[in-house]
């Protein structure tokens, strides 16, 4: 077992960070954590570019619910770190909407792995979130389910459905960024699980802002069109332009039933992807979407969605809806 003597948990809420020239002004300790995690998450960005991306994304409204955590040793060494984002949660049987937390960017330096630091960090957060009254905690594991399953997280089934980009004729009405708030506020009744994390304008904006950042880095324009509607079917997307991605990612697909309207909005996505030189449209398929989707090619997902129930009335048998806008 890990010796927790002398360890302490520190947190850095991001809701009130000052903004200057389109970037958050972050304290030195927060940049220290971001700089450390760049070795895992920067990928095709330089460290400087990665730090700028994090400062830009911290300006978005969704990041007002962001807190960065670090588990420190007795000499202030960072042993483990992660982020949490507060999200709404609809729990069956409750008259009021609950809340939960999405966990992201769990990181331990390679030289410090194998000592249980990440597990200790998460144990402390779980206790804190439980005391706050959170319904659940969720994350998207890129390292498989083993570590998080030991902490009580339960894997939720997920596959990827891909469609080739091509100039598809369609009758869908395109949705512009300025229409997104109204679109989210007026989503038609949809197929979803009774227990679910509802979409918000703020979380979708965070994803689209991330896409815009990469477009700017690559010297490419980012379209104002962010989705399409046909009848009661709505689709919202993000252009994923980094070299290791290069696809149109569907963030949200909402429809009360399968049918021609769903076909039309997917065709709109295929057409927009082709227009911007992206080879595929990629859509996350969980239980709530599987009966909606026509055609395409299915494959296993790289990310493993996992949920830890915290409240006694949260039953994972009620949950079958994981969409890309849930990713953090």
Salient structural properties:
7-stranded mixed sheet; 328 residues; alpha+beta
Number of strands: 16
Radius of gyration: 20 Å
Helix content: 25-40%
- The fraction of residues assigned to DSSP E strands is 25-35%
Distance between the termini: 30 Å
Q: What structural class results from the helix and strand content?
A: alpha+beta
Structure, described:
The chain is an alpha+beta fold. The chain has helices spanning 28-41, 47-57, 117-132, 146-149, 180-185, 201-217, 260-275, 287-290; strands at 8-13, 19-20, 23-24, 66-72, 78-89, 98-107, 136-141, 154-155, 159-164, 173-176, 225-230, 233-240, 247-254, 280-285, 297-300, 304-309. Strands 1-4-5-6-7-16-8 form a seven-stranded mixed sheet, sandwiched between helices. It has a seven-stranded mixed sheet with strand order 10-11-12-13-14-9-15. Strands 2-3 form a two-stranded antiparallel ribbon. A hairpin with a 2-residue loop joins strand 2 (19-20) and strand 3 (23-24). The model has no long low-confidence stretch (mean pLDDT 93).
């Amino acid at each position: 077992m890990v010796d927790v003597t002398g360890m302490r948990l520190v947190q850095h809420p991001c809701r009130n960070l000052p903004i200057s020239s389109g970037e958050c002004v972050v304290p030195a300790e927060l940049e220290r954590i971001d700089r450390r995690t760049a070795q895992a998450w920067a990928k095709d960005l330089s460290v400087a570019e990665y730090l700028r991306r994090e400062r830009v994304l911290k300006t978005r409204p969704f990041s007002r619910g962001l807190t960065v955590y670090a588990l420190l040793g007795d000499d202030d060494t960072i042993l483990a770190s992660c982020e949490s984002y507060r999200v709404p949660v609809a729990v069956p049987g409750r008259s009021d909407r609950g809340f939960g937390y999405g966990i992201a960017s769990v990181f331990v330096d390679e030289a410090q792995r194998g000592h249980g630091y990440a597990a200790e960090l998460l144990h402390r957060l779980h206790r804190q979130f439980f005391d706050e009254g959170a319904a659940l905690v969720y994350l998207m594991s890129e390292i498989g389910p083993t570590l998080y399953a030991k902490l009580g997280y339960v894997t939720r089934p997920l596959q990827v459905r891909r469609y080739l980009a091509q100039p598809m004729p369609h009758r869908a009405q395109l949705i512009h960024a300025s229409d997104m708030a109204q679109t989210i506020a007026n989503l038609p009744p949809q197929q979803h699980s009774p227990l679910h994390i509802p979409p918000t304008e703020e979380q979708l904006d965070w994803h689209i802002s991330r896409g815009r950042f990469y477009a700017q880095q690559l010297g490419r324009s980012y379209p104002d069109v962010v989705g399409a509607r046909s009848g009661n079917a709505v689709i919202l997307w993000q252009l994923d332009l980094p070299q290791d991605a290069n696809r149109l990612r569907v963030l949200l697909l909402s429809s009360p039933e399968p049918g021609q309207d769903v076909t039309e909005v997917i065709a709109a996505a295929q057409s927009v992807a082709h227009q911007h030189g992206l080879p595929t449209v990629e859509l996350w398929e969980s239980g709530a979407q599987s009966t909606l989707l026509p055609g395409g090619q299915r494959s296993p997902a790289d990310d493993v969605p996992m949920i830890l129930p915290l409240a006694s009335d949260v039953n994972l048998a009620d949950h079958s809806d994981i969409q890309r806008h849930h990713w953090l």
